[in-house]
Amino acid sequence: MTDPINTFDAPPTTARGEVRTWLRLDGLAALAAAALAYGVLGGDWRVFALLFLIPDLSMLGYLFGRGFGAFAYNLGHSYMSPLVIGGVTWALGRPDFAPLALIWIAHIGFDRALGYGLKYSTGFGDTHLGRVGRTKPAT
Where are the alpha helices (DSSP H) in 41-129? Predict the structure, then answer.
Protein backbone atom coordinates (compact mmCIF):
# COMPACT_ATOMS: atom_id res chain seq x y z
CA MET A 1 0.00 0.00 0.00
CA THR A 2 1.35 3.42 -0.92
CA ASP A 3 1.66 6.26 1.52
CA PRO A 4 -1.05 8.80 0.51
CA ILE A 5 1.18 11.67 1.62
CA ASN A 6 4.12 10.64 -0.59
CA THR A 7 2.45 9.84 -3.90
CA PHE A 8 4.64 12.11 -6.01
CA ASP A 9 4.91 9.52 -8.76
CA ALA A 10 1.37 8.17 -8.43
CA PRO A 11 -1.04 8.46 -11.34
CA PRO A 12 -2.52 11.92 -11.22
CA THR A 13 -5.67 12.68 -9.31
CA THR A 14 -6.83 16.05 -10.48
CA ALA A 15 -9.25 18.75 -9.51
CA ARG A 16 -12.47 18.71 -11.48
CA GLY A 17 -15.55 20.85 -11.94
CA GLU A 18 -16.14 23.70 -9.55
CA VAL A 19 -13.03 22.87 -7.47
CA ARG A 20 -10.85 23.30 -10.58
CA THR A 21 -12.61 26.60 -11.28
CA TRP A 22 -11.98 27.80 -7.72
CA LEU A 23 -8.30 26.86 -7.93
CA ARG A 24 -7.93 28.73 -11.21
CA LEU A 25 -9.68 31.78 -9.72
CA ASP A 26 -7.27 31.55 -6.76
CA GLY A 27 -4.44 31.80 -9.28
CA LEU A 28 -6.02 34.83 -10.90
CA ALA A 29 -6.43 36.45 -7.47
CA ALA A 30 -2.76 35.77 -6.64
CA LEU A 31 -1.70 37.32 -9.95
CA ALA A 32 -3.82 40.41 -9.34
CA ALA A 33 -2.74 40.83 -5.71
CA ALA A 34 0.95 40.38 -6.50
CA ALA A 35 0.79 42.82 -9.42
CA LEU A 36 -1.08 45.36 -7.28
CA ALA A 37 1.45 45.03 -4.45
CA TYR A 38 4.28 45.35 -6.97
CA GLY A 39 2.78 48.60 -8.22
CA VAL A 40 2.21 49.92 -4.68
CA LEU A 41 5.87 49.22 -3.89
CA GLY A 42 6.81 51.31 -6.93
CA GLY A 43 8.23 48.44 -8.94
CA ASP A 44 9.50 49.06 -12.44
CA TRP A 45 7.06 47.43 -14.89
CA ARG A 46 9.85 46.87 -17.41
CA VAL A 47 11.63 44.72 -14.81
CA PHE A 48 8.33 42.95 -14.12
CA ALA A 49 7.94 42.11 -17.83
CA LEU A 50 11.58 41.08 -18.14
CA LEU A 51 11.51 38.68 -15.16
CA PHE A 52 7.93 37.42 -15.41
CA LEU A 53 8.79 34.23 -17.32
CA ILE A 54 12.00 33.40 -15.41
CA PRO A 55 10.28 30.71 -13.27
CA ASP A 56 9.63 28.76 -16.48
CA LEU A 57 13.35 28.04 -16.66
CA SER A 58 12.57 25.36 -14.08
CA MET A 59 11.20 23.31 -16.99
CA LEU A 60 14.81 22.66 -17.96
CA GLY A 61 14.77 20.07 -15.18
CA TYR A 62 12.93 17.81 -17.63
CA LEU A 63 16.22 17.45 -19.50
CA PHE A 64 17.24 15.16 -16.62
CA GLY A 65 14.10 13.04 -16.58
CA ARG A 66 10.46 13.28 -15.64
CA GLY A 67 10.98 12.87 -11.90
CA PHE A 68 13.62 15.57 -11.59
CA GLY A 69 11.72 17.74 -14.06
CA ALA A 70 8.54 17.58 -11.97
CA PHE A 71 10.53 18.36 -8.81
CA ALA A 72 12.29 21.35 -10.42
CA TYR A 73 9.08 22.65 -11.98
CA ASN A 74 7.16 22.33 -8.71
CA LEU A 75 9.95 24.08 -6.81
CA GLY A 76 9.73 26.98 -9.27
CA HIS A 77 5.94 27.01 -9.33
CA SER A 78 4.99 26.63 -5.68
CA TYR A 79 3.96 29.71 -3.74
CA MET A 80 6.10 28.39 -0.91
CA SER A 81 9.38 29.31 -2.64
CA PRO A 82 8.79 33.05 -3.27
CA LEU A 83 6.94 33.49 0.03
CA VAL A 84 9.84 32.03 2.00
CA ILE A 85 12.44 34.04 0.10
CA GLY A 86 10.38 37.25 0.27
CA GLY A 87 9.54 36.77 3.94
CA VAL A 88 13.09 35.92 5.02
CA THR A 89 14.65 38.81 3.11
CA TRP A 90 11.99 41.19 4.49
CA ALA A 91 12.66 39.94 8.04
CA LEU A 92 16.41 40.41 7.50
CA GLY A 93 15.83 44.03 6.57
CA ARG A 94 16.29 43.54 2.81
CA PRO A 95 12.80 44.40 1.53
CA ASP A 96 14.34 45.28 -1.84
CA PHE A 97 13.90 41.58 -2.70
CA ALA A 98 10.12 41.79 -2.13
CA PRO A 99 9.41 42.95 -5.71
CA LEU A 100 11.20 39.86 -7.06
CA ALA A 101 9.08 37.60 -4.87
CA LEU A 102 5.95 39.42 -6.07
CA ILE A 103 6.90 38.91 -9.72
CA TRP A 104 7.41 35.22 -8.97
CA ILE A 105 4.03 34.97 -7.20
CA ALA A 106 2.36 36.77 -10.12
CA HIS A 107 3.87 34.27 -12.55
CA ILE A 108 2.60 31.31 -10.52
CA GLY A 109 -0.85 32.87 -10.30
CA PHE A 110 -0.87 33.44 -14.06
CA ASP A 111 0.05 29.82 -14.74
CA ARG A 112 -2.59 28.53 -12.31
CA ALA A 113 -5.25 30.79 -13.84
CA LEU A 114 -4.43 29.24 -17.22
CA GLY A 115 -4.73 25.75 -15.76
CA TYR A 116 -1.05 24.88 -15.43
CA GLY A 117 -0.74 23.21 -12.06
CA LEU A 118 1.95 21.43 -10.11
CA LYS A 119 3.35 18.48 -12.03
CA TYR A 120 3.27 14.78 -11.34
CA SER A 121 6.32 12.77 -12.38
CA THR A 122 4.14 10.74 -14.74
CA GLY A 123 4.47 13.46 -17.38
CA PHE A 124 4.63 17.20 -17.95
CA GLY A 125 0.96 17.35 -18.85
CA ASP A 126 -0.19 15.64 -15.65
CA THR A 127 -0.98 18.39 -13.14
CA HIS A 128 -3.02 18.80 -10.00
CA LEU A 129 -5.37 21.03 -12.00
CA GLY A 130 -5.91 18.45 -14.71
CA ARG A 131 -4.26 17.28 -17.89
CA VAL A 132 -2.73 20.03 -20.06
CA GLY A 133 -1.63 19.77 -23.63
CA ARG A 134 -2.68 17.34 -26.29
CA THR A 135 -3.69 13.84 -25.41
CA LYS A 136 -2.44 10.95 -27.48
CA PRO A 137 -5.08 9.53 -29.82
CA ALA A 138 -6.33 6.08 -28.98
CA THR A 139 -4.79 3.37 -31.12
Answer: 45-51, 66-76, 80-91, 98-113
